[in-house]
Amino acid sequence: MNYIKNIEHEAALFLKDEVSVQAGQIVSKTLTQNHHISITLFAFSKGEEISSHDSSGDAMVLVLEGTGQFTVDGSEYVLSAGETLIMPAKKPHAVFAKEAFKMMLTVVFPPVS
Asked: What's the rounded Cα separation, in Å, for the pair 5 and 31?
């Protein structure tokens, strides 16, 4: 059984090549999702956004290509390829594509009691 799906196993690859930008869309590819963790690749077309929301877990973004704008609890961050940002649990955050960009989102959820 594979816990990570939708991506080739035992192969060297570039994550940025695993998801494609499509005009006027946000494209996502879930690699894993359960009660503990979620890992998803995203490709944003220029001008696309995910409006403000929060999460029960800590969210970590890694920009894979291009530049994205992230707003966390009112503070704005502009990240380029190779940069990472932690968006703490329960703090409102949003994403805006200043230009087409790709990112990997990892969310680590609190233990289920």
From this structure: 5
Report the alpha-carbon distance of residue 34 to residue 36 in Å, rounded. 5
Q: How does pLDDT run across 59-85, given as a tens digit for each residue?
A: 999 999 999 999 999 999 999 999 999
Characterize 66-95 residue by residue with b for buried, 16 or more Cβ atoms within 10 angstroms of its Cβ, and e for exposed.
bebbbbbeeeeeebeeeeebebeeeeebeb
Tracing tokens 């409102």 back to the chain, one arrives at 92
User: What's domain 31-108's superfamily in CATH?
Assistant: Jelly Rolls (2.60.120.10)
Q: How confident is the model at residue 36 (pLDDT cuts 50, 70, 90)?
A: very high
